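Sample intake sheet
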Amino acid sequence: MTESIATIVDHTLLKPEATAADVAATIAEAADLGAYSVCLSPNVLPVEVPEGLKTAVVVGFPSGRHHSEVKAAEARLAASQGADELDMVIDVGAAIDGRYDAVEADVRAVREAAPGVVLKVIIESAALTDDQIVAVCKASEAAGADFVKTSTGFHPAGGASEHAVALMRATVGDRLGVKASGGIRTREAADAMVRAGASRLGLSSTRAIVEGAPSASDY
């Protein structure tokens, strides 16, 4: 990994106990490291970031078990308050049930609520079978997503895996981005995700990873 890896990182702070000081420190660190964006909880908006740093916020986080109308409203508000990107969580239960039309409708509701904002769809790949991962990626693409994303980092099934990232990339080709997030704590793990096909990384241990040091932190 080289320093340039920071340019595809969403430097992430989603801990429920995060304070205003934590948010400010995360933004400053993201800028210092040259990260692509800072990924935060939506209630911190509006927030000032240095020029060149994008702002991403989560939607329907972390369970995804919100009504689509609520997710859409959250997305619309975030866009109006300056979010450049949205990371929305699908209804994982609908995917497990095979109700991919419901997943597609859910994603489309958020897409239509914030048409000018980059939309990443969190699928919780560790909780899904390969067939379900493929179907959810296809539903997300059909609904207008810009990225598919492995994980929230909060699901007990786990976070990103090389296998899931490779499968997601094979499904969406070069038409969508693939974001790997959840449990990526080392330089080696981040490198592996990029080799598997990730075009964006969600990291909270960005400094340690960019500098090649070990870290035990997570989202």
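Comment: Strands lie at 9-12, 37-40, 54-59, 85-89, 118-122, 147-149, 177-181, 200-203. The domain at 3-211 is CATH 3.20.20.70 (TIM Barrel).
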